Amino acid sequence: MTTSTDNALAPVTLYDAPIFHAVTGAPMSVDQLAEQLRDTDVIVVGEYHGHQGAHLLQARLQAALYQRRPAQVLTMEQFTLDHQGDVDRYLSGETGETELIEDGDAWENYRASYRPMVEFARRHDIPVMAANAPADIVRCVGRKGAGHLDTLPADVRQQLPRAPFQDTPGYREKFLQAIGQSHRTDSEALDARMHNTYLAQLLRDNTMAARILQALEQHPGHQVLHLTGTFHSEERLGTVGLLEARAPALSVAVISPVFRSDDEPALAAARQQNKGDYLYIIAPLPPEFRDSEREMKAMQARFGRSAGTDCS
Protein backbone atom coordinates (compact mmCIF):
# COMPACT_ATOMS: atom_id res chain seq x y z
CA MET A 1 0.00 0.00 0.00
CA THR A 2 1.39 3.42 -0.93
CA THR A 3 1.08 6.64 1.02
CA SER A 4 0.61 10.24 -0.03
CA THR A 5 4.27 10.86 0.86
CA ASP A 6 5.35 8.00 -1.40
CA ASN A 7 3.29 9.44 -4.25
CA ALA A 8 4.71 12.94 -3.76
CA LEU A 9 8.26 11.61 -4.03
CA ALA A 10 7.60 9.24 -6.94
CA PRO A 11 9.18 9.88 -10.34
CA VAL A 12 6.80 11.71 -12.65
CA THR A 13 8.54 10.99 -15.95
CA LEU A 14 11.22 8.53 -17.09
CA TYR A 15 13.77 11.32 -16.60
CA ASP A 16 12.95 11.82 -12.91
CA ALA A 17 15.05 10.07 -10.26
CA PRO A 18 14.36 11.27 -6.69
CA ILE A 19 17.38 10.61 -4.45
CA PHE A 20 17.31 9.38 -0.85
CA HIS A 21 19.82 8.66 1.88
CA ALA A 22 19.65 4.90 2.42
CA VAL A 23 20.05 5.08 6.20
CA THR A 24 17.80 7.99 7.11
CA GLY A 25 15.45 7.84 4.13
CA ALA A 26 15.76 11.61 3.77
CA PRO A 27 15.30 13.04 0.26
CA MET A 28 18.30 14.78 -1.28
CA SER A 29 19.09 16.99 -4.24
CA VAL A 30 21.97 16.24 -6.60
CA ASP A 31 23.93 19.11 -5.08
CA GLN A 32 23.35 17.81 -1.56
CA LEU A 33 24.50 14.36 -2.64
CA ALA A 34 27.62 15.76 -4.29
CA GLU A 35 28.43 17.75 -1.17
CA GLN A 36 28.22 14.62 0.98
CA LEU A 37 30.48 12.79 -1.49
CA ARG A 38 33.08 15.56 -1.77
CA ASP A 39 35.80 13.57 0.04
CA THR A 40 34.85 10.07 -1.13
CA ASP A 41 37.53 8.23 -3.10
CA VAL A 42 35.30 6.16 -5.37
CA ILE A 43 31.65 6.80 -6.23
CA VAL A 44 29.89 3.91 -7.95
CA VAL A 45 26.60 4.72 -9.67
CA GLY A 46 24.65 1.59 -10.52
CA GLU A 47 22.25 1.77 -13.43
CA TYR A 48 19.67 -0.15 -15.37
CA HIS A 49 21.24 0.18 -18.81
CA GLY A 50 19.34 2.54 -21.07
CA HIS A 51 17.09 4.07 -18.42
CA GLN A 52 16.85 7.83 -19.00
CA GLY A 53 16.46 8.59 -15.30
CA ALA A 54 19.69 6.81 -14.41
CA HIS A 55 21.74 8.47 -17.14
CA LEU A 56 20.42 11.97 -16.44
CA LEU A 57 21.27 11.52 -12.76
CA GLN A 58 24.78 10.34 -13.65
CA ALA A 59 25.40 13.38 -15.87
CA ARG A 60 24.12 15.84 -13.28
CA LEU A 61 26.10 14.21 -10.49
CA GLN A 62 29.29 14.20 -12.58
CA ALA A 63 29.01 17.98 -13.05
CA ALA A 64 28.12 18.62 -9.41
CA LEU A 65 31.07 16.54 -8.19
CA TYR A 66 33.40 18.36 -10.60
CA GLN A 67 32.36 21.73 -9.21
CA ARG A 68 33.53 20.60 -5.78
CA ARG A 69 36.52 18.50 -6.79
CA PRO A 70 37.76 18.99 -10.36
CA ALA A 71 40.39 16.24 -9.99
CA GLN A 72 38.13 13.50 -11.32
CA VAL A 73 38.41 10.29 -13.36
CA LEU A 74 35.47 8.68 -15.15
CA THR A 75 35.64 4.87 -15.30
CA MET A 76 33.10 3.03 -17.42
CA GLU A 77 31.84 -0.52 -17.71
CA GLN A 78 30.56 0.50 -21.14
CA PHE A 79 34.02 0.42 -22.75
CA THR A 80 36.43 -2.53 -22.62
CA LEU A 81 40.10 -2.07 -21.75
CA ASP A 82 41.30 -3.24 -25.17
CA HIS A 83 39.64 -0.09 -26.59
CA GLN A 84 41.33 2.35 -24.22
CA GLY A 85 43.36 3.70 -27.13
CA ASP A 86 40.19 4.47 -29.08
CA VAL A 87 38.77 6.36 -26.10
CA ASP A 88 42.01 8.32 -25.66
CA ARG A 89 42.18 9.25 -29.33
CA TYR A 90 38.65 10.63 -29.21
CA LEU A 91 39.31 12.64 -26.05
CA SER A 92 42.44 14.15 -27.60
CA GLY A 93 40.55 15.22 -30.73
CA GLU A 94 42.21 12.78 -33.12
CA THR A 95 38.91 11.07 -34.03
CA GLY A 96 35.23 11.94 -34.23
CA GLU A 97 32.30 10.48 -32.34
CA THR A 98 31.25 7.98 -35.01
CA GLU A 99 34.85 6.78 -35.17
CA LEU A 100 34.81 6.32 -31.38
CA ILE A 101 31.58 4.35 -31.60
CA GLU A 102 32.77 2.14 -34.46
CA ASP A 103 36.42 1.68 -33.46
CA GLY A 104 35.76 1.55 -29.71
CA ASP A 105 32.89 -0.95 -30.02
CA ALA A 106 30.64 1.38 -28.05
CA TRP A 107 27.28 0.17 -26.82
CA GLU A 108 24.31 0.70 -29.13
CA ASN A 109 22.81 3.28 -26.77
CA TYR A 110 26.03 5.32 -26.47
CA ARG A 111 24.65 8.52 -27.99
CA ALA A 112 21.45 8.49 -25.96
CA SER A 113 22.95 7.32 -22.66
CA TYR A 114 26.69 7.94 -22.27
CA ARG A 115 27.49 10.81 -24.62
CA PRO A 116 26.81 13.47 -21.92
CA MET A 117 29.35 12.02 -19.47
CA VAL A 118 32.06 11.47 -22.08
CA GLU A 119 31.54 14.94 -23.55
CA PHE A 120 31.73 16.55 -20.11
CA ALA A 121 34.98 14.69 -19.53
CA ARG A 122 36.35 15.72 -22.91
CA ARG A 123 35.55 19.40 -22.39
CA HIS A 124 37.10 19.45 -18.92
CA ASP A 125 40.14 17.24 -19.61
CA ILE A 126 38.87 14.50 -17.30
CA PRO A 127 40.51 11.11 -17.94
CA VAL A 128 38.10 8.38 -19.06
CA MET A 129 39.12 4.81 -18.37
CA ALA A 130 37.64 1.83 -20.21
CA ALA A 131 37.03 -0.50 -17.28
CA ASN A 132 35.46 -3.70 -18.59
CA ALA A 133 37.18 -6.91 -19.67
CA PRO A 134 37.49 -7.54 -23.44
CA ALA A 135 34.20 -8.89 -24.72
CA ASP A 136 35.63 -11.83 -26.67
CA ILE A 137 37.64 -13.01 -23.68
CA VAL A 138 34.57 -12.83 -21.44
CA ARG A 139 32.55 -14.84 -23.96
CA CYS A 140 35.24 -17.51 -24.26
CA VAL A 141 35.58 -17.86 -20.49
CA GLY A 142 31.81 -18.34 -20.41
CA ARG A 143 32.15 -21.16 -22.93
CA LYS A 144 35.41 -22.85 -21.99
CA GLY A 145 36.10 -21.84 -18.40
CA ALA A 146 39.05 -20.34 -16.55
CA GLY A 147 41.59 -22.25 -18.62
CA HIS A 148 40.91 -20.01 -21.62
CA LEU A 149 43.07 -17.31 -20.05
CA ASP A 150 46.09 -19.64 -20.29
CA THR A 151 45.75 -19.60 -24.08
CA LEU A 152 46.02 -15.81 -24.38
CA PRO A 153 49.17 -14.05 -25.57
CA ALA A 154 51.27 -12.78 -22.66
CA ASP A 155 50.67 -9.11 -23.43
CA VAL A 156 46.90 -9.65 -23.47
CA ARG A 157 46.91 -11.68 -20.26
CA GLN A 158 48.96 -9.00 -18.49
CA GLN A 159 46.18 -6.47 -19.04
CA LEU A 160 43.80 -8.59 -16.96
CA PRO A 161 43.84 -8.80 -13.15
CA ARG A 162 46.30 -11.18 -11.52
CA ALA A 163 43.40 -12.83 -9.68
CA PRO A 164 40.71 -12.65 -12.38
CA PHE A 165 38.22 -14.92 -10.63
CA GLN A 166 38.40 -13.65 -7.06
CA ASP A 167 35.02 -13.94 -5.37
CA THR A 168 33.22 -12.35 -2.43
CA PRO A 169 30.71 -13.97 -0.02
CA GLY A 170 27.11 -14.01 -1.15
CA TYR A 171 27.71 -13.01 -4.76
CA ARG A 172 27.47 -16.48 -6.30
CA GLU A 173 24.16 -17.13 -4.56
CA LYS A 174 22.76 -13.84 -5.83
CA PHE A 175 24.02 -14.50 -9.35
CA LEU A 176 22.53 -17.99 -9.56
CA GLN A 177 19.23 -16.76 -8.18
CA ALA A 178 19.17 -13.98 -10.76
CA ILE A 179 19.56 -16.41 -13.66
CA GLY A 180 17.10 -18.89 -12.18
CA GLN A 181 19.55 -21.56 -11.07
CA SER A 182 20.18 -23.22 -7.73
CA HIS A 183 23.46 -24.56 -6.36
CA ARG A 184 22.80 -27.99 -7.84
CA THR A 185 21.22 -28.93 -11.11
CA ASP A 186 20.06 -32.20 -12.53
CA SER A 187 22.51 -31.94 -15.41
CA GLU A 188 26.25 -32.00 -14.74
CA ALA A 189 26.85 -30.32 -18.09
CA LEU A 190 24.41 -27.55 -17.25
CA ASP A 191 26.07 -27.08 -13.87
CA ALA A 192 29.48 -26.71 -15.57
CA ARG A 193 28.05 -24.23 -18.04
CA MET A 194 26.55 -22.15 -15.23
CA HIS A 195 29.89 -22.24 -13.43
CA ASN A 196 31.67 -20.90 -16.51
CA THR A 197 29.01 -18.23 -16.90
CA TYR A 198 29.68 -17.17 -13.34
CA LEU A 199 33.43 -17.10 -14.00
CA ALA A 200 32.77 -14.73 -16.91
CA GLN A 201 30.82 -12.50 -14.53
CA LEU A 202 33.71 -12.56 -12.04
CA LEU A 203 36.14 -11.64 -14.80
CA ARG A 204 34.11 -8.51 -15.53
CA ASP A 205 33.92 -7.54 -11.86
CA ASN A 206 37.58 -8.20 -11.11
CA THR A 207 38.65 -6.27 -14.18
CA MET A 208 36.53 -3.26 -13.25
CA ALA A 209 37.84 -3.30 -9.67
CA ALA A 210 41.42 -3.50 -10.94
CA ARG A 211 40.88 -0.69 -13.44
CA ILE A 212 39.43 1.58 -10.74
CA LEU A 213 42.53 0.97 -8.63
CA GLN A 214 44.69 1.60 -11.68
CA ALA A 215 42.88 4.91 -12.24
CA LEU A 216 43.70 5.97 -8.68
CA GLU A 217 47.33 4.93 -9.11
CA GLN A 218 47.71 6.83 -12.37
CA HIS A 219 45.91 9.90 -11.04
CA PRO A 220 46.78 10.35 -7.35
CA GLY A 221 44.37 12.48 -5.36
CA HIS A 222 41.63 12.18 -7.97
CA GLN A 223 38.07 11.11 -7.29
CA VAL A 224 36.77 8.21 -9.37
CA LEU A 225 33.22 8.20 -10.70
CA HIS A 226 32.39 4.69 -11.93
CA LEU A 227 29.38 3.83 -14.11
CA THR A 228 28.16 0.24 -14.07
CA GLY A 229 25.13 -2.00 -14.18
CA THR A 230 23.57 -2.10 -10.73
CA PHE A 231 24.09 -5.86 -10.36
CA HIS A 232 27.85 -5.22 -10.24
CA SER A 233 27.54 -2.85 -7.27
CA GLU A 234 24.34 -3.09 -5.24
CA GLU A 235 24.54 -4.62 -1.76
CA ARG A 236 28.30 -3.88 -2.03
CA LEU A 237 28.78 -7.10 -3.99
CA GLY A 238 30.50 -7.71 -7.31
CA THR A 239 32.90 -4.95 -8.31
CA VAL A 240 32.41 -3.04 -5.07
CA GLY A 241 33.07 -6.06 -2.87
CA LEU A 242 36.25 -6.86 -4.78
CA LEU A 243 37.39 -3.24 -4.69
CA GLU A 244 36.96 -3.08 -0.92
CA ALA A 245 38.69 -6.44 -0.46
CA ARG A 246 41.72 -5.26 -2.45
CA ALA A 247 41.90 -1.75 -0.99
CA PRO A 248 40.05 -1.64 2.34
CA ALA A 249 41.35 1.85 3.15
CA LEU A 250 39.43 3.38 0.24
CA SER A 251 36.17 5.19 0.88
CA VAL A 252 33.57 3.86 -1.56
CA ALA A 253 30.00 5.13 -1.94
CA VAL A 254 27.36 3.08 -3.74
CA ILE A 255 24.38 4.73 -5.41
CA SER A 256 21.71 2.25 -6.51
CA PRO A 257 18.50 2.53 -8.54
CA VAL A 258 15.17 1.25 -7.28
CA PHE A 259 12.16 0.73 -9.52
CA ARG A 260 9.03 2.40 -8.28
CA SER A 261 6.44 -0.21 -7.31
CA ASP A 262 2.71 0.38 -7.18
CA ASP A 263 2.28 -2.51 -4.74
CA GLU A 264 4.72 -1.64 -1.97
CA PRO A 265 6.90 1.24 -0.76
CA ALA A 266 9.93 0.62 -2.94
CA LEU A 267 12.22 2.87 -0.94
CA ALA A 268 11.58 1.07 2.36
CA ALA A 269 12.13 -2.34 0.73
CA ALA A 270 15.41 -1.21 -0.84
CA ARG A 271 16.65 0.24 2.44
CA GLN A 272 16.02 -3.10 4.15
CA GLN A 273 18.01 -4.88 1.45
CA ASN A 274 20.99 -2.51 1.89
CA LYS A 275 21.15 -1.92 -1.84
CA GLY A 276 23.37 1.13 -1.50
CA ASP A 277 24.47 4.11 0.56
CA TYR A 278 22.15 6.28 -1.52
CA LEU A 279 19.12 5.27 -3.54
CA TYR A 280 17.33 6.82 -6.47
CA ILE A 281 13.79 5.91 -7.49
CA ILE A 282 13.00 5.46 -11.18
CA ALA A 283 9.82 4.67 -13.05
CA PRO A 284 9.56 1.17 -14.56
CA LEU A 285 10.37 0.88 -18.25
CA PRO A 286 7.70 -0.39 -20.64
CA PRO A 287 7.87 -4.13 -21.40
CA GLU A 288 9.94 -5.00 -24.46
CA PHE A 289 7.59 -7.77 -25.54
CA ARG A 290 4.19 -9.17 -24.78
CA ASP A 291 4.49 -11.90 -27.38
CA SER A 292 6.64 -14.63 -25.80
CA GLU A 293 7.54 -16.15 -29.17
CA ARG A 294 8.85 -12.84 -30.50
CA GLU A 295 10.77 -12.33 -27.27
CA MET A 296 12.45 -15.72 -27.62
CA LYS A 297 13.46 -15.00 -31.22
CA ALA A 298 14.86 -11.62 -30.22
CA MET A 299 16.91 -13.15 -27.42
CA GLN A 300 18.26 -15.82 -29.76
CA ALA A 301 19.27 -13.12 -32.24
CA ARG A 302 21.06 -11.14 -29.54
CA PHE A 303 23.05 -14.12 -28.33
CA GLY A 304 23.63 -15.27 -31.88
CA ARG A 305 25.60 -12.12 -32.68
CA SER A 306 28.40 -13.31 -30.39
CA ALA A 307 28.34 -16.93 -31.53
CA GLY A 308 31.07 -16.32 -34.10
CA THR A 309 33.73 -15.57 -31.50
CA ASP A 310 36.75 -17.84 -32.07
CA CYS A 311 37.89 -19.34 -28.75
CA SER A 312 40.41 -21.78 -30.20
UniProtKB/TrEMBL annotation:
Keywords: Lipoprotein. InterPro entries: Cofac_haem-bd_dom. The keyword Phosphoprotein does not apply. Residues 33-240 form the Haem-binding uptake Tiki superfamily ChaN domain. It comes from the Bacteria. SUPFAM superfamilies: EreA/ChaN-like (SSF159501). This is ChaN family lipoprotein. It comes from Marinobacter salinisoli.
